[in-house]
Design brief:
By secondary structure, the chain is of the alpha/beta class. It has helices at about 1-5, 45-50, 75-85, 150-155, 160-170, 185-200, 215-225, 230-235, 255-265, 285-290, 300-310, 310-325, 345-350; strands at about 10-15, 20-25, 30, 35-40, 50-55, 65-75, 100-105, 120, 135, 140-145, 180, 200-205, 225-230, 250, 270-275, 280-285, 295-300, 335-340, 360-365.
């Protein structure tokens, strides 16, 4: 430390082994440390507008943190943001990515509660996680246990949190209650299945038919799904005639006829929550569902919840989910890790017809 102070007015060049580049220190400032990242300068087709670049990491502010990213998922919301279709607009040029996990490399002079080596995730969206080195505001970071897997940590703040809130905020679910959902194979749907299993709640999961349907049913059942039906099978299912209780909560991420089908099986005075529209068709609610079954319909958007939720509720949710993950009751969704140089493969997967992408692609920044 004394030697560094003595050289505070002189550039000191040292090897930065993890990133295989040169770090130049001038006092407490970082210079000539290059970040490998993706960026887009206009809205449009992600395969056309997203480009790779390398640029210098900016100087670290007093309340900022330098993070070496480990992993960041490619989510549908990321794609919609790049396309300019997401409700939240960004200033261009912009680095994509809402979620991610990394290690703290350096903290600003006024950051007292983080230190080098802390494992952190992004607690606020639109921070630009598709890069190997990034400077983030301290307020955007949350520490997670070192034992938490990189994929689980990188994908913690969107789908697990969405599932947790929808299962907690709309209906007071009790053990052996029933939740019905379409898109049961989606990343959020897989989290719903596992959280319900941990809480003793039964799930009826509707998926679209496909050639490998047997393998998909087996996979979801092993996660903890009580029942898995294709949309065609669901139409003739008899399970609600005595085998299980009618659902008090329905979760709709498809819309159109698929969402309307859920309402047919739901209990009187139950609730359906819509959090996605993969079919790109409007949500259809028969008049009879309102008048004769008194069903309530709501929408949910995790980004909006985060804007208004108290810090205590966020912390409690995070701790509950991490506990489930550490005890292996909540696993990461089916995924594939790809290096930054292969980012186009991840974009192509995310642009596949919704519901048939196969797995979540995650950018892997580790050497």
């Amino acid at each position: 430390m004394t030697a560094l102070k003595a050289l505070s007015k002189t550039a000191l060049t040292v090897l930065y082994p993890r990133q295989k580049c040169t770090l130049v220190l001038r006092g407490n400032q970082i210079r000539n440390l290059m970040s490998r990242q993706l960026v887009y300068n206009e809205f449009g087709d992600p395969l056309q507008v997203v480009k790779y670049r390398e640029c210098e990491v900016p100087a670290l502010g007093k309340q900022e943190v330098l993070v070496r990213m480990l992993a960041a998922p490619v989510n549908p919301a990321d794609i919609n943001t790049i396309q300019g279709k997401y409700p939240v607009k960004v200033n261009l040029p912009s680095i994509p990515g809402n979620e991610g996990v990394g290690f703290v490399e350096q903290v600003g002079s006024e950051v007292q509660d983080l230190q080098r080596g802390n494992k952190v995730i992004l607690a606020t969206s639109l921070q630009g996680t598709w890069r190997n080195l990034a400077v983030f505001p301290r307020t955007s970071l949350t520490v997670v246990p070192d034992a938490l897997g990189n994929v689980e940590a990188a994908t913690l703040t969107v789908n697990p949190c969405t599932a947790f809130r929808m299962l907690s905020d709309f209906v007071c679910l009790k053990k052996d209650d029933v939740v019905i959902q379409n898109g049961g194979n989606s990343a959020c749907g897989q989290n719903v299945i596992q959280i319900c299993k941990a809480w003793g709640i039964k799930t009826v999961n509707v998926v679209r038919d496909r050639p490998e349907i047997s393998e998909l049913k087996k996979y979801l059942t092993n996660l903890g799904a009580t029942y898995v039906f294709t949309e065609e099978e669901m139409r003739s299912a008899q399970i609600f005639k005595g085998e299980v209780k009618k659902p008090m909560l329905g979760l709709n991420c498809v819309g159109g006829k698929s969402g309307a089908q859920l309402l047919r099986y739901m209990n009187h005075s139950s609730t359906m929550v819509t959090y996605g529209g993969m079919s790109r068709e409007p949500v259809i609610v028969p008049t009879s569902a309102f008048i004769f079954k008194n069903i309530s319909c709501h929408g949910f958007w995790m980004t909006e919840w985060n804007k208004h939720a108290p810090a205590e509720a966020k912390e409690q949710m995070k701790d509950s989910l991490i506990k489930l993950m550490l005890t292996k009751q909540l696993k990461a969704p089916t995924h594939k890790l790809v290096k930054l140089k292969d980012f186009e493969e991840a974009l192509k997967n995310a642009l596949a017809p919704q519901g048939f992408a196969g797995c979540k692609y995650i950018l892997d920044f580790t050497d």
